[in-house]
Write a sequence for this structure.
């Protein structure tokens, strides 16, 4: 126990749900102590996770329209790249990303990377 | 010119060639001839080249008409529709139709066209065996295709492949049988033929080459096609597209010289100096012609000769061929057979499916085959027609004109490099210089203008891109190409194109639409997806399954997102009327869920602001219990119908405006529209409900109801326009519903009624709604039908558990839960 407590975990992966819990080209929210994380599922069944706050005015990205590997923020239509968290087009800004993986149909998030 | 001295011109046939000849004749010497046309087909002149798009469901007959009935009236042409000429009496100078109608002529123009060759195999006359020639054939094919059965197309040439692609589009299981190893062997070499075959097969069309048809089997109706090698192909429909033969029998019977076709000289005169022949029935220089470009050249010569220009002469030149199957790009021209005295330059890019071959003889271009990338077709074709010596550019010839110019890769450069007399529109023989001149002289701004003034790109449309580039070159920044009217970056199609194609191609899902219309992105974007979802929903009520992921969050969750991510909730208050129990329920909900703000809206209802997303279903459940339903304050949909108290209370009221407002709202709630729709009903012209700045408004007067529309009071301020006056509430409802349905069918997504009305024209709308009673009733019925699928309270559905995932987090990892 002691030995473990002395080592800062490099990554704590947590299962947050099944892939099927998220609609195709949709998103769901995971509440964490550090704030909400938006977990996206693309039409190709890839998952991505971002801090659920648009870099522009803090809009909930989880409520946006998912297209390709981007999401359009519901407040002012900024388009955020799901992979990089960066705003696309002429807008500048970025949102922290969270590593996400699918293992056996379950979605895992790397919570040590939480903002 | 008086009738007495006008010469009588009789035309036998009403196809594209005589149509063009008359058009030119009326332009150059109007009034010289009194014209009578006998048309064996019971209709006006239409663009036969476009029959394939009609078969593929991309166009309707109306869209391919060249001369409508009005044109014949305008030019005093006597058009006998559905009358077949059976006799020409050259001595008496008369022609006689099958019903006995006789006309005298001073000049006669024979344009009887051609007929498809029917191969003489047993069973060729069975029911279900068709050729591909006119609109009747297309109609018959489309009818047969409804069975979704098996079709066999005999002939893998241009027409056969277009028929096959069209039948496949119509849902049939299609096999093409072709006599020789290469498809379209007259236009393609074997390499391009192979690429074409792969593209055709990729559409699910089965191709059998080196196949000789032995017999067509069936009792009364066709059942199968038997090939020479014993293969039996099941068939509910057989289309023969193996070639055409000039219709020369009528001329032959009249003693006019006929070979394969009606023999004409370069001036298009037959052996009788008063008789001309034009089009596919004519044979000039020992050859009959089937492509539109030389036929239009013939037509121009006939027109000039008739107008008195004796020098006009037909000089057949090389023509280019294109296949009109959406998504397949090929271009061929000239002679590209192998030969000892010929050389060739070939470019291949297998991954992109591109193949280019230029055949050279004596350092001049003799033949061109382009497959996959046909951008430089016009340039190569120009080199061929001119006989340009290409020695200097031979090394880079195959890479096209941009490389010759040494310029950066600018898509306009190829067009800029063309000489003024280079042909742009092959169908109509329009050179670049003529188009540029028209753009300058007539101050043309768009494609429609160029088409109207020069006809360039108005026939088969494959040169549209070139014409647009000319507009771009000439106008610079002043030109706003159709690309800027495109829905979004995912397509070059405009909103209107997409709406039309959804209907024409019966596209009933977003993936099907994106596949069929060749969307450039894999799944659309936040601009096009909501629009497509609306168009499909409005076009196919009850069939299309709403794609909630293509809806903006407000419409997905049935509440309005606020800047902090909370939502606002606005229940319906029909016509702005409410009750104590409704108000009490709202008060209770506000208390129970600690809703921070309550506001009275401009639309006569109450807005609860700051509701947490997780609370929405419970809030709705409580509101539903008091009879309150969704007000659709969040949707591109019917919002409110504002009313005044009308004659029930007001001393000036003329009608029960409140009751009418409530009735309209109860009838129309739940319908989706291109953009939001706000209405109002005022009980007298004092207009307390402010109906004259709404999308649709009613002003009650003693004699009934004045209906107004196309107002705005937002980004733009605009008073309404009059639509019409009706006497009763029932009529008022019918008119308003029909108007909104017309808007639902024509409006572009996010286009408010006032913008739609300005675009299509107020009068056009008035005529359709107020004057054309049948149309109004049909629109009304379509709205009523669509409402069957939309009048269900979305709040009640979600309070009962629908789309629960929208309202709950997927997981909660906050400490409270983690401690459990």
């Amino acid at each position: 126990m002691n030995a473990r407590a002395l080592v800062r975990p490099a990554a704590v992966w947590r299962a947050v749900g099944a892939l099927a819990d998220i609609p195709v080209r949709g998103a769901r929210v995971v509440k964490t102590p550090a704030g909400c994380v938006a977990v996206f599922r693309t039409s190709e069944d890839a998952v991505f996770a971002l801090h659920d706050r648009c870099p522009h005015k803090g809009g909930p990205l989880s409520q946006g329209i998912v297209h390709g590997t981007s999401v359009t923020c519901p407040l002012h239509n900024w388009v955020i790249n799901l992979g990089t968290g960066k705003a696309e087009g002429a807008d500048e800004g970025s949102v922290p990303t969270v590593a996400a993986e699918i293992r056996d149909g379950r979605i895992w998030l790397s919570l040590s990377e939480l903002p | 010119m008086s009738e007495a001295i006008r010469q009588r011109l009789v035309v036998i046939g009403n196809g594209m060639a005589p149509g063009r000849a008359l058009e030119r004749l009326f332009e150059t010497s109007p009034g010289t001839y009194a014209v009578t046309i006998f048309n064996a087909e019971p209709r006006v002149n239409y663009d036969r080249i476009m029959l394939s798009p009609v078969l593929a469901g991309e166009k309707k007959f109306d869209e391919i008409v060249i001369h409508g009935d009005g044109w014949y009236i305008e030019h005093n042409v006597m058009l006998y529709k559905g009358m077949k000429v059976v006799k020409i009496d050259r001595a008496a100078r008369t022609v006689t139709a099958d019903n006995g109608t006789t006309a005298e002529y001073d000049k006669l123009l024979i344009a009887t066209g051609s007929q498809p060759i029917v191969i003489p195999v047993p069973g060729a006359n069975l029911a279900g065996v068709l050729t591909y020639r006119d609109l009747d054939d297309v109609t018959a094919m489309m009818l047969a295709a409804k069975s979704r059965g098996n079709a066999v197309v005999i002939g893998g040439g241009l027409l056969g492949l277009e028929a096959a692609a069209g039948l496949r589009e119509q849902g049939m299981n299609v096999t093409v049988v072709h006599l020789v190893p290469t498809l379209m062997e007259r236009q393609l070499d074997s390499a391009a033929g192979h690429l074409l075959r792969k593209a055709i097969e990729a559409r699910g069309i089965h191709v059998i080459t080196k196949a000789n048809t032995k017999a067509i089997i069936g009792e009364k109706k066709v059942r199968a096609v038997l090939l020479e090698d014993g293969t039996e192909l099941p068939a509910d429909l057989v289309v023969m597209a193996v070639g055409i033969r000039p219709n020369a029998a009528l001329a032959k019977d009249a003693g006019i010289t006929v070979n394969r076709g009606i023999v004409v000289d370069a001036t298009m005169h037959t052996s009788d100096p008063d008789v001309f022949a034009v089009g596919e029935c004519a044979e000039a220089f020992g050859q009959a012609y089937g492509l539109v470009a030389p036929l239009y050249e013939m037509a121009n010569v006939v027109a000039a000769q008739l107008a008195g220009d004796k020098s006009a002469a037909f000089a057949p030149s090389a023509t280019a061929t294109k296949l009109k199957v959406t998504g397949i790009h090929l271009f061929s021209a000239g002679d590209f057979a192998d030969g000892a005295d010929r050389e060739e330059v070939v470019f291949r890019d297998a991954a992109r499916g591109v193949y280019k071959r230029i055949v050279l003889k004596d350092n001049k271009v003799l033949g061109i085959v382009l497959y996959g990338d046909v951008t430089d077709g016009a340039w190569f074709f120009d080199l061929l027609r001119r006989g340009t010596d290409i020695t200097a550019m031979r090394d880079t010839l195959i890479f096209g004109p941009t490389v010759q110019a040494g310029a950066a890769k600018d898509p306009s450069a190829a067009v800029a490099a063309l000489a003024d007399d280079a042909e742009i529109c092959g169908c109509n023989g329009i050179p670049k210089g003529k188009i540029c001149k028209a753009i300058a002289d007539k101050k043309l701004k768009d494609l429609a203008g160029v088409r109207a003034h020069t006809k360039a790109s108005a026939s088969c449309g494959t040169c549209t891109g070139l014409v647009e580039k000319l507009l771009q070159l000439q106008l610079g920044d002043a030109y706003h190409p159709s690309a800027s009217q495109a829905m979004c970056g995912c397509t070059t199609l405009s909103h209107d194109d997409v709406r039309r194609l959804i209907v024409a191609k019966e596209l009933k899902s977003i993936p099907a639409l994106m596949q069929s219309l060749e969307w450039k992105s894999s799944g659309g974007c936040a601009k096009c997806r909501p629009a497509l979802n609306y168009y499909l929903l409005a076009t196919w009520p009850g069939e299309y399954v709403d794609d909630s992921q293509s809806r903006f969050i407000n419409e997905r969750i049935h509440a309005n997102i606020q800047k902090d991510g909370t939502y606002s909730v606005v229940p319906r208050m029909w016509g702005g009327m409410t009750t104590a129990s409704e108000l009490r329920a709202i008060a209770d909900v506000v208390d129970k869920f600690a809703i921070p703000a309550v506001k009275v809206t401009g639309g006569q209802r109450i807005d609860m602001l700051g509701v947490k997303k997780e609370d929405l279903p419970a809030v709705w459940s409580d509101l539903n219990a008091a009879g309150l339903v969704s007000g659709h304050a969040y949707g591109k949909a019917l919002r409110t119908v504002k009313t005044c108290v009308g004659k029930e209370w007001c001393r000036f009221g003329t009608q029960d405006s409140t009751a009418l407002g409530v009735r309209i709202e109860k009838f129309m709630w739940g319908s989706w529209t291109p953009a939001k729709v706000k209405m109002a009903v005022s009980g007298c012209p004092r207009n307390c409900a402010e109906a004259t700045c709404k999308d649709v408004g009613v002003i009650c007067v003693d004699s009934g109801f004045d209906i107004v529309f196309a107002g705005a009071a937002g980004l733009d301020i605009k008073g309404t326009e009059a639509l019409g006056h009706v006497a009763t509430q029932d009529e008022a409802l019918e008119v308003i519903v029909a108007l909104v349905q017309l808007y639902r069918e024509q409006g572009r997504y996010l286009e408010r009624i006032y913008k739609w009305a300005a675009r299509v024209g107020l009068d056009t709308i008035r005529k359709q709604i107020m004057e054309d009673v049948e149309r109004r009733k049909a629109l009304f019925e379509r709205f009523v039908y669509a409402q069957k699928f939309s009048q269900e309270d979305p709040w009640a559905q979600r309070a009962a558990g629908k789309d629960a995932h929208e309202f709950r987090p997927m997981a909660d990892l906050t400490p409270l839960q983690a401690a459990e």
Observations:
- The CA atoms of residues 35 and 51 of chain A lie 8 Å apart.
